[in-house]
Amino acid sequence: MKGRLAGLAGVLVLLVGWSALAAFGVAGGTIPSPLRVVSTMFTDGWALYGPNFAITARGALLGFLWGNLLALGLAVLVMLVPRVEPLATQLAILSYCTPLVALGPIILVVFGGRTPTVFLAAMYCFFTTMVGAVAGLRSADSTSIDLIRAYGGGRWQELYRVRAIAALPSIFAALKIAAPSAVLGAIIGEYLGGVDSGIGVALTAAQTAYNVPRTWGMALAAAALAGLGYLLVAALARVVTPWTKEVAR
C-alpha cells in the first residue's frame, strides 16, 4: 500500500510540475498542458493511436521474444559449456556498446521492411537478459548442486533441476527491464524509415508538422506501451515466482 501511495504521489508531483511549466511558457511554449495533450489525444482518437500502437507493439514483442530467446540460450550454453563464456561475454558487451542506431540503416538496406524495428528491439533486450540469466543461474544453492553431483548428475541435471529454478527471479527482473527497452528499440527502428506506420512514424510526422500536442500525445502513447510491457512481465513474474513475494514480506 505504501508503495502504491508513493507511486501516486510521484505521478501527482509530475503532473503539477508539468502544468506549471506549461503555464509559465517554459521552452517557448513547446510544453503544452496535460489537459491540452489529453484533449488532443481524444480528438485524434483510436483511428490514429490504435493502428500505430498495435504495429509498434507487434514489432516490440517480436524483438522482445527473439532477443530474450537468444540471451537465454546463450546463458544456458555458458552453464553447459563454460569454455564459451569469454566469447559469450564479448558478444554481450559488443551488443551493449555498439551504437545500434548506426546498425539500423544497414539492416534497412539489406533486409528492408520492418526488420530494423524487430532487430533493434531484440538488441536492446539482449545484454540485460543475458547478464541477469547468467547471474541467476550461478546463484543456485551450492548444497543442492553438490547433491546432484553426488548422485552422478551432470551439468544438464544441475541446470534443469536446480539452476533454472534458482535463476527465475533474476531472469524476470531482467525481463522487466527488457520489456520497455524493446519498445524503445522498436520506436527507434521506425524512426529510421522504411515503414509507413507505427508510433515512431506518427511521432516524426507530428514533429514535422509542428503539432506539439500530438507530439506529446504520441510520446505518452510510447510511455504507456513501455509501461504496459513492464506490468505484464511483472504480473507473470508474480505468478511464476510466488516465493519471491513471500521472501520480500
Automatic annotation (TrEMBL):
Pfam families: BPD_transp_1 (PF00528). One of its GO terms (biological process) is transmembrane transport. It comes from the Bacteria. It is found in: Cell membrane. Its main location: membrane. Residues 49-237 form the ABC transmembrane type-1 domain. The keyword Transmembrane helix applies. Signal peptide: none annotated. It is a multi-pass membrane protein. Belongs to the binding-protein-dependent transport system permease family. This is ABC transporter permease. It comes from Nocardia camponoti.
